[in-house]
Write a structure and sequence with these properties.
The protein is mainly beta. It has six helices and 25 strands. The longest helix has 16 residues.
Length: about 400
């Protein structure tokens, strides 16, 4: 079976441990290569793109040099219609049901109360009291309301039901809406040996360590009823029912299977238009001309930050953006590293008010992503960066 070139969803099931390298250099003697879970969406985009080229019988060397152009995949310099629009961690149950998983966004803090009970607390946009100064340029500040200082708990993921409740501004159920990282994957530390290219043998004294990621499986002796992998939504290409992928560092094996149905996010555009305010939540890293400011946001002479992109107008009044990250990667066509770029991390949250848009314009902006027309970088747009969703401002 072959799917049409509309939006399709793939479940990517690792068949081996994965080497999901981040952006830290390693390979020198004594260095440590930490894995990044989930990896950047460009990892999925490159793996699927390469598998599609092989499936179509395209000469990979000719494609890499720009001598061959594919109507859907374009060229390495000018991508075609194919693009990744969503990439997340996911688990597939024995009955075939797939549940997407998201890391808690920046405005959601999980902490442990007295007695060891978990609770979720939302960061709230607030004006600072008189006498307190800040370097933030937004009108409001993202404040965590608490009587006593507490330490956030890490290592938790939102289930799809938890993600929907979060977008709607509802309370989360600590028992059913959260999953621990230890229930999803385990890390396997491995030792690598540096090679001497001249002698084509191991280089003396060059040992390094790298993390391998072992995704949980149903057949593992852990009593779990699901396989853990990734969910990738793609559009603009004709996808076969199944693809074998070389995924992540060292090209470890993974199988991508088309899904007939997946749980969808709620359409909150009607209540957002009525309320004239909302949250904008990044679902992939944001590569923006303004650094932490999303594409379309500019600060005027009065100090206000106005947002205007593809017909959606608003005022940006608050932001919760974690410390910037750096993305890069390996360019197979040029056989060299991609330029390193600073990004606003996945899960960054922006609060907008004075919203002027129709529901159709809000949905259109989500479909486009936070890119200008034409996009600032067509290749990285195809790789799945600058994706977001709307959430209610409770």
């Amino acid at each position: 079976m072959v799917a049409t070139a509309t939006r399709q969803t793939l479940f990517i099931e690792p068949l081996d441990v994965l080497i999901l390298r981040g952006n830290k250099l390693f390979g020198d003697p004594g260095s440590f290569g930490e894995s990044l879970v989930p990896p950047w969406p460009s990892v999925a985009a490159g793996a699927i793109r390469s598998a599609l080229l092989a499936h179509k019988g395209v000469d990979l060397r000719a494609f890499a040099s720009g001598q061959v152009q594919d109507p859907e995949l374009g060229t390495p310099q000018q991508p075609g219609s194919f693009r990744v629009v969503n990439f997340r961690l996911a688990r597939r149950f024995a009955d075939g049901r797939v549940d997407s998983l998201c890391a808690p966004p920046a405005d959601l803090v999980i902490r442990r109360k007295d007695g060891g009970v978990l609770e979720c607390v939302r960061v709230q946009p607030r004006e600072l009291p008189a006498g307190i100064q800040s370097s933030a340029v937004t009108k409001l500040h993202a404040v965590l309301p608490e009587r006593e200082r507490s330490k956030p708990e890490g290592g938790y993921w939102l289930t799809h039901e938890g993600w929907v409740a979060y977008l709607k501004g509802n309370d989360l159920d600590m028992n059913s809406h959260l999953v621990r990282s230890s229930d999803l994957w385990a890390l396997d530390t491995r030792v690598g040996v540096g090679l001497d290219p001249a002698k084509r043998s191991a280089a003396e004294g060059k040992l390094f360590t790298v993390q391998a990621v072992a995704m949980r499986k149903q057949h593992h002796a852990n009593g779990r009823d699901h396989d853990v992998g990734f969910l990738a939504e793609v559009e603009g290409a004709t996808i076969p029912n199944e693809l074998m992928l070389r995924f992540g560092g060292d090209g470890r094996a993974a199988r991508a299977s088309l899904l007939d149905s997946v749980p969808s996010e709620p359409d909150l555009t009607e209540p957002i238009v009525k309320a004239r305010r909302c949250r904008l939540i990044l679902t992939s890293p944001g590569i923006f001309p303004g650094g932490w400011l999303p594409t379309g946001a500019t600060q005027n002479d009065t100090g206000e930050i106005r947002f205007a992109l593809h017909g959606v107008l608003a005022r940006l009044v608050c932001a919760a953006v974690p410390r910037c990250e750096v993305v890069s990667g390996w360019d197979l066509a040029k056989w060299q590293p991609k330029p390193a770029k600073r990004v606003a991390p996945t899960g960054s949250v922006y609060w907008l008010d004075e919203l002027e848009a129709t529901p159709a314009q809000l949905r259109n902006l989500v479909a486009r992503g936070l890119w200008s027309d034409p996009p600032e970088d067509a290749a990285q747009r195809a790789e799945g960066f600058n994706r977001f969703t709307w959430g209610l401002w409770p």
